[in-house]
Amino acid sequence: MKINIGINEDQRKAIAHGLSVLLADTYTLYLKTHNYHWNVTGPMFQTLHTLFETQYNELALAVDEIAERIRALGEFAPGSYKEYAKLTSIKEADGIPTAEEMIKDLVKGQEAIAKTARSIVPTADDASDEVTLDLLTQRMTVHEKNAWMLRSLVA
């Protein structure tokens, strides 16, 4: 059936594309955070192991919310490593970094997602897409807070 939610097709496609980038960034950071959760070592092990778990669980829930919004806009959500690799701005880590390098890398990832979400705001705002704007506000809030919390762990 044709979609008639008050947002024209071109706007829906543009918003969905932005959300696809956000989805790819979110999933990539989820994988990286989960990897770091498994492989962190050192005197801050317990703290970081727990913090990383909290953050990757939140990212896993976010992936579903973002993908469902893309579908509600009438587009298909990307869902493969190949598609995510083309869309994401987050670089994979080589090897197993030190705990402090993990923290700094995750700060960059959290900030990248906040920037990706912020970049979609004008398109969603032009379309009066309050649902997507609300989702983007929630994502920016979470990622800016996570970046701050991680940043506070390093000098």
TrEMBL record:
Organism: Rheinheimera nanhaiensis E407-8
Residues of the Ferritin/DPS domain: 19-154
One annotated GO molecular function: oxidoreductase activity, acting on metal ions
Family: Belongs to the Dps family.
Listed PROSITE patterns: DPS_1, DPS_2
Short name of one Pfam family: Ferritin
Keywords: DNA-binding
Listed name of the protein: Starvation-inducible DNA-binding protein
